[in-house]
Amino acid sequence: MCPTPEENGTSNGHADGHSNGSNGSHTGFKKVAEQKSSNPYAPVGDFLSNVSKFQIIESTLREGEQFANAFFDTETKIKIAKALDAFGVDYIELTSPAASEQSRLDCEAIVALGLKAKILTHVRCNMEDAKMAVATGVDGVDVVIGTSSFLMEHSHGKDMAYIKKTAIEVIEYVKSQGKEIRFSSEDSFRSNLVDLLTLYQAVDKVGVHRVGIADTVGCATPRQVYDLVRTLRGVVNCDIETHFHNDTGCAIANAFCALEAGATHVDTSVIGIGERNGITPLGGLMARMIVADPDYVKGKYKLHMLKEIEDMVAEAVEINIPFNNYITGFCAFTHKAGIHAKAILNNPSTYEIINPHDFGMERYVHFASRLTGWNAIKSRVEQLNLTLTDAQIKVVTQKIKALADVRPIAIDDADSIIRTFHLNLTNNENKPLIPNLTIEEQKKFAKAEMELAAVKEKRELDEEAGVPTAKKVKA
Q1: Is 340 annotated in the active site?
Q2: For 275-299, how does the pLDDT look when each residue is reduced to its tens digit (9 = 90+)?
Q3: Nearest-CA neighbor of 76 among 353, 312, 260, 268?
Q4: Pyruvate carboxyltransferase domain location, by residue (predicted)?
Q5: What CA–CA distance (Å, rounded) separates 138 from 57?
Q6: Given the residues 340, 357, 366, 422, the one annotated as active site
Q7: Domain membership flag for residue 326
């Protein structure tokens, strides 16, 4: 994002900070209203886009229960529901009360909490399920039925005429009970487009609150999603909900494209858990959307709660948070390469599109490796409250890089080298920097030091002799 003149310490666009006249005005010119800095990563403006006003239907307690490892008792469900509500999700979707007696009781228990988020339950498109759902006291009912030829033939065995008739009956009943109602096709992207749009148009006419499209098998691409949602937006007036499975890795991109095309709601689950590879992850969607519209996302959601919620769910389903998980993975804000570390230490936005502090996270510059640079070591020296000159830091950096060429090293190893190096300088001693090396490792370490020193010496000689270095090729 480009800095404003005020951020550069200037005013009225003048480098010296002086204005045109004592009152900051100029005769014969109109004062231009101050413009807010634009976000270069925001999507191209579109009157149909909902990138800056989307709503989340959080389905960890419905889709997430379909995850292979999932078993949520009532107490765990209540803890998760309260945490999601505090985070700021708009809706919490629960397993169908028709699934089991305990599912029905859990649904009633969560309704009784009086959360700010609206409580939904997800049922098959038939009257018995709808009546059971309404009886639990939920705010809304999500009904679904398969519309692809695969599901019509091999799942429920009903044709489009039956689906349309039943859908209208269920919608009218749920509405008569004062509840929100969503109708969704299942396996939308493998359904006949004409049948699908005809069905959506019919349920829209009877006043459904939302229609849903579901990429049930995770086959859709962002372009397909955009085209279908854009087409659907021209057919219905109601809201459009989206549900994307992640079998082919497109769930987050598909959700974003759906919002760009005019969808209003996105289904998510914590860490993306769900059937097979799961659905759009809550944290991953936050990562995508905070880049597109940071003000909306930071103003609506308590982002610092994300790690706590993910840890809670991960513990409940007995999995570890992946190392490369969006936002909360332990490598998410870790920088290792020397050129990265130098730039990050100068200005974090050089290699970070997301500010970890927005999520209550911290960045980490990895300095215990052969890839480290002296700027990273300098930062660590300062963290250890030690005083070394830049020249001394460059020497100790070579020692750390040489050891990292011999064997893997940990933070404690690097810190030990730094501290001993500093102690030797302070006390005029010559204690070994790495006391526990084997004879073989000592030989390798000495060789690595010599090679690094030779490279440094050659560079210095080349510079003194005026030997040109390799020119950088523009990308």
Answers
A1: yes
A2: 999 999 999 999 999 999 999 999 9
A3: 312
A4: 54-307
A5: 14
A6: 340
A7: no
